[in-house]
């Protein structure tokens, strides 16, 4: 962690800290349906408060597109956060009008928290308007970024403010950056990447970047069907992208040229429809019935993937290997996830996973807790997997 300052490197006692957190929690009718991000944000907040800082806390919520939309107010988050902190007072600044944020920040004392209203109520946030960035920076002495999931956004609170104040990564950001570094930049080899999910088209950049860096690429999920098509295999009614066959062939050639070993399905679980009640069977990939679709990798493929993983020291995973939302089509994902979990627990493996559906699939497999690191960031994790420098991380570099 030489290129970033962390909370260890800055003296925040008696200072006002602008903490950019990710409090973008799912809501239904203004009720929070999953408070995980608030629980996580409370960790950094507690450390800053215990260390004698006054905290100006900021986040976006949903997509209000530069206007004050009541359903996207952060007010419910303030109450939840107060509960997380054991009833500490969180002052909520109701809106951006006049000098409300400025007045509240001026009155803020060490040990106190001010939660600003949704940053995206102001058009200057997403536009990275220098005037809005300056307004935010003027509220504090130090900038701390704990929102890795927003690091791919070139917004005022992500890249504008750290250009104006001394900046550091918060603990969540630090953990995420360290985990990612251990996975791709300085991993212990052999490294296996597991890529699944819907489509090649949305993960092309990921595949191209991984091929150049990992020793083994294990491909499952619907995306594997396009690779099978490229091999001249008839996939029946399976989800596939025939227009991406040339791309798949190019990826196979590039992998071969880079000494990256590919593992593709040799068998799949098929059914006539995508439903939990569907009759299913495992068949060899060259015997997929015309009127059926492949909805999971088969047991032979799962065993082959597990054999590769057993030889590896590092695993990076994005994308479920089947339609895991509909058991039994979670079997392949579960089998591989549990092996990765077991080997991580025993110390044989470092395992990093990310992606919204991947996370849900690993939780469902009861494997997520044993992974070395599971990223809560969907888009930012995928952009990082593509090898892109994220603007929010570049802005923190010293
Ligand atoms: P993530 O959100 O982790 O990046 P994706 O969104 O790329 O993952 O892919 C997840 C989706 O892919 C899931 O909804 C899953 O049902 C679907 N999927 C995986 N394999 C198949 C398959 N064989 N047929 C249909 N859908 C599949
Ligand atoms: Mg998804």
Strand tally is 17
Q: Main sheet?
A: 6 strands, parallel
The shape, in one word, is elongated
Tell me the Rg in angstroms: 23 Å
The total count of helices amounts to 15
Structural class: alpha/beta
Bound molecules: adenosine-5'-diphosphate, magnesium ion
> What topology, given as strand order, has the largest sheet?
5-6-4-1-7-8
In CATH terms, the superfamily of the largest domain is: Phosphoglycerate kinase, N-terminal domain
What's the CATH architecture of the largest domain?
3-Layer(aba) Sandwich
**CATH hierarchy, class of the largest domain:** Alpha Beta
Helix share bin: 25-40%
Which residues form runs of ≥5 with pLDDT under 50? none
Q: Give the tally of structural domains.
A: 2
CATH topology of the largest domain: Rossmann fold
Q: Beta-strand level of the residues, as a percent range?
A: 15-25%
* N/C terminus separation: 11 Å
Describe the fold and architecture:
The protein contains 15 helices and 17 strands. The protein has helices at 36-50, 75-84, 100-106, 123-127, 130-137, 156-160, 171-185, 204-213, 223-230, 245-257, 299-310, 331-345, 356-364, 379-385, 391-394; strands at 16-20, 27-28, 31-32, 54-58, 90-92, 113-115, 142-145, 167-169, 191-195, 216-219, 261-263, 267-271, 280-284, 293-297, 314-318, 350-354, 373-375. It is elongated. The chain has 398 residues and is α/β, with parallel strands linked by helices. The protein starts with 15 loop residues before the first strand and ends with a helix. The strands form four sheets. It has a six-stranded parallel β-sheet. It has a six-stranded parallel β-sheet with strand order 11-10-9-15-16-17, sandwiched between helices. Strands 13-12-14 form a three-stranded antiparallel β-sheet. It is 36% helix and 17% strand. It folds into two domains: 7-173, 3-Layer(aba) Sandwich (Rossmann fold); 187-366, Phosphoglycerate kinase, N-terminal domain (Rossmann fold, 3-Layer(aba) Sandwich), CATH 3.40.50. Residues 356-357 line the site of magnesium ion (MG). Adenosine-5'-diphosphate binds at residues 196-198, 221-222, 239, 294-295, 318-320, 322-323, 325, 355-358.
């Amino acid at each position: 962690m030489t290129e970033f300052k962390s909370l260890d490197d800055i003296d925040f006692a008696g200072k006002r800290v602008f903490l950019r957190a990710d409090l973008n929690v799912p809501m239904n009718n203004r009720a929070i349906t999953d408070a995980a991000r608030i629980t996580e944000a409370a960790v950094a907040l507690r450390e800053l408060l215990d260390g004698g800082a006054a905290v100006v806390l900021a986040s976006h919520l949903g997509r209000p597109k530069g206007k004050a939309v009541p359903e996207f107010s952060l007010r419910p988050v303030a109450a939840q956060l107060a509960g997380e902190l054991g009833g500490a007072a969180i002052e909520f600044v109701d809106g951006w009008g006049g000098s409300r944020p400025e007045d509240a920040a001026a009155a803020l004392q060490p040990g106190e928290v001010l939660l600003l209203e949704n940053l995206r109520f102001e058009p200057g946030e997403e536009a990275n308007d220098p005037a809005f960035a300056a307004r935010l920076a003027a509220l504090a002495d130090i900038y701390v970024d704990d929102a890795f999931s927003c690091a791919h956004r070139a917004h005022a609170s992500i890249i504008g403010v750290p250009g104006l104040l001394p900046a550091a990564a918060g603990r969540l950001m630090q953990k995420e950056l360290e985990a990612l570094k251990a996975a791709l930049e300085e991993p212990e080899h052999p490294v296996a990447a597991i890529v699944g999910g819907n489509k090649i088209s949305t993960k092309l950049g990921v595949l191209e970047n991984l091929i150049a860096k990992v020793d083994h690429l294990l491909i499952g999920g619907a995306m594997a069907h396009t690779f099978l098509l490229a091999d001249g295999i008839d996939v029946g009614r399976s989800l596939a992208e025939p227009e991406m066959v040339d791309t798949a062939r190019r990826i196979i050639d590039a992998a071969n040229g880079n000494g990256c070993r590919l593992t593709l399905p040799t068998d799949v679980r098929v059914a006539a429809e995508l439903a939990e009640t569907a009759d299913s069977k495992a068949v060899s990939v060259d015997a997929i019935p015309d009127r059926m679709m492949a909805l999971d990798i088969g047991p032979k493929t799962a065993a082959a993937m597990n054999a590769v993983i057993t030889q590896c020291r590092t695993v990076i995973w994005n994308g479920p290997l089947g339609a895991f939302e509909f058991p039994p089509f979670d079997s392949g994902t579960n089998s591989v996830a549990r092996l990765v979990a077991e080997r991580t627990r025993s110390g044989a493996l470092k395992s990093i996973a990310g992606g919204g559906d991947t996370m849900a699939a690993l939780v469902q497999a009861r494997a997520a807790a044993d992974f070395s690191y599971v990223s809560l960031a969907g888009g930012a994790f995928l952009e990082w997997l593509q090898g892109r420098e994220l603007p929010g991380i570049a802005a923190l570099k010293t």
